[in-house]
TrEMBL record:
This is Integration host factor subunit beta. Belongs to the bacterial histone-like protein family. The keyword Membrane does not apply. GO terms for molecular function: DNA binding; structural constituent of chromatin. It comes from Paracoccus aestuarii. Coiled coil: none annotated. Heterodimer of an alpha and a beta chain. PROSITE patterns: HISTONE_LIKE (PS00045). This protein is one of the two subunits of integration host factor, a specific DNA-binding protein that functions in genetic recombination as well as in transcriptional and translational control. GO terms for biological process: DNA recombination; regulation of DNA-templated transcription; regulation of translation. The lineage of its organism: Bacteria, Pseudomonadati, Pseudomonadota, Alphaproteobacteria, Rhodobacterales. One of its GO terms (cellular component) is cytosol. The keyword Zinc-finger does not apply. Keywords: DNA recombination, DNA-binding, Transcription, Transcription regulation, Translation regulation. The gene is ihfB. Signal peptide: none annotated.
Length: 94
């Protein structure tokens, strides 16, 4: 599902809301998640999962084309851990 499909589904299920308002709400939720993660905060949506940021140390990597060693800088990467409800639904337990 992509963002526009999510907006359409919410709009269809809530005919009393204008599509532009639903779009603004969805965009605000995503922006808040992004802002919190960029500050290094953890975002938890009960039953769905938790978004966090993990730090990867700098290391020496290899260029796959030439085999030459390259220095890879430290970086921060997004991480998602599923919640119990989501995990149970995916595995057919609920």
């Amino acid at each position: 599902m992509i963002r526009s499909e999510l907006i359409q589904k919410i709009s269809d299920e809530n005919p009393h809301l204008f599509r532009r308002d639903v779009e603004r709400i969805v965009n605000t939720v995503f922006e808040e998640i992004i802002d919190a993660m960029s500050r290094g905060d953890r975002v938890e949506l009960r039953g769905f999962g938790a978004f966090s940021v993990k730090r990867r140390d700098s290391r020496v990597g290899r260029n796959p084309r030439t085999g030459e060693s390259v220095e890879v800088e430290e970086k921060h990467v997004p991480f998602f851990k599923t919640g119990k409800l989501l995990r149970d639904r995916l595995n057919g337990d609920a």
